[in-house]
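MODEL INPUT / OUTPUT PAIR
PAIR INDEX: 1
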Amino acid sequence: MHPKVYVLASYWVIEKLSELALDRLLCTLQAFQDTEYDPQQVQYIVELISYVYENTCFRFGEQEPMRRAVTRFTALELTRLNTRRDISKLMGNYGDFACDLLSDLTRNVKLAEVGGGIQHKYLAGIEIHTGGPQPSNCVQEYQWGSPNINFGTGAE
């Protein structure tokens, strides 16, 4: 329901309502993230992605917020969502989705070894350290509801 409210609010340029719908969708995706996916839940996500990409428009120079949210969620959960190749099929059907997902994956997921055995993992614009002593600004756990989510530019 949240994507439908978002699309309607965007059409009528009701910014506060579209922001609320986007926020509610993020909360729902956070709840999904905390569960084991069964085929029905994966189908819900597939339908969500299809609806969003059929009913929102490409924005030149910036990513559409609802598209960015579902793409980011898909990137974070890709291995769990694509066990039956449902996401791969969507990429074949929606070229914009394929481009957005690939862009998100290549821009925001970087592994690099750093001296002392610390590994830095940049995921969704958040730096996560694994192994060795962790700096005080380290994000220990990633949650959708966290204020650490950065929908701006990816980690450079």
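PAIR INDEX: 2
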Amino acid sequence: MRLLPAPSAQSLRLLFLFIFVMGVAPSPALTAGCPDRCVCDDQLVVQCAGQDLILFPNDLPLATRQLIISNNRIKELPALQLNYLSDLVYLDVSNNTLAEISESTFGNLRKLAYLDLSFNTMVQIEDRTFGPLSSLVMLRLTDNPGLSDIHSDAFSENLALQVLDVSRNNLTALNISTLIALPSLRSLGLSGNPWTCDCDTEDLCLWVLIEGFKFQVNKAVVLCWVGDPAMLQGLITAYRHINSFS
């Protein structure tokens, strides 16, 4: 039987070096280049705030856990690039010029727990926009001056959502089914919107008065901003009547 030649000492050294490198080298996702004008650290945080970016940053490490792109001029969140970041848990896109988002925007971000879309230029939130975000705990959607419409099913699948802030937008009404569908809700921000005194707003006011004890909310800011003493008195009477049986 023919025996293979014994490996040389140099070959053994190269083999051991290769095994050592393969064993300790970080994942390619961690060593991927950091986008221009951004800072990436070994905690998987990518910081691109205040860099006057117009476009969503390219070449983000795939293992990114926190992405901060606030205080730029980004107009669009490209679904294809964003959804490669399947480990993302924190996304701050506040103070940009986003005008539109949809269900496909966040299609693969099932681990995302914090999302800040405040200080943008959105005008409406469509059906199931946040549907894929099954782990979402906090959503800040404040200070979009043109935001006047939130679909009643916009948050219908966000059962983990605990903090929702839609303050200082242009909302005149909000369907209470949007809120009833959130069993984990603990904090609700509604201030600074031009609420209209109609049946939809009356339902919202009454719901806040009755259910407000479950979470932190300033009840006074919801009661029709134009002021309607008769409606206010009716709500208070209804609230007291309901609580007399509790």
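PAIR 2 NOTE: The longest strand covers residues 45-47.
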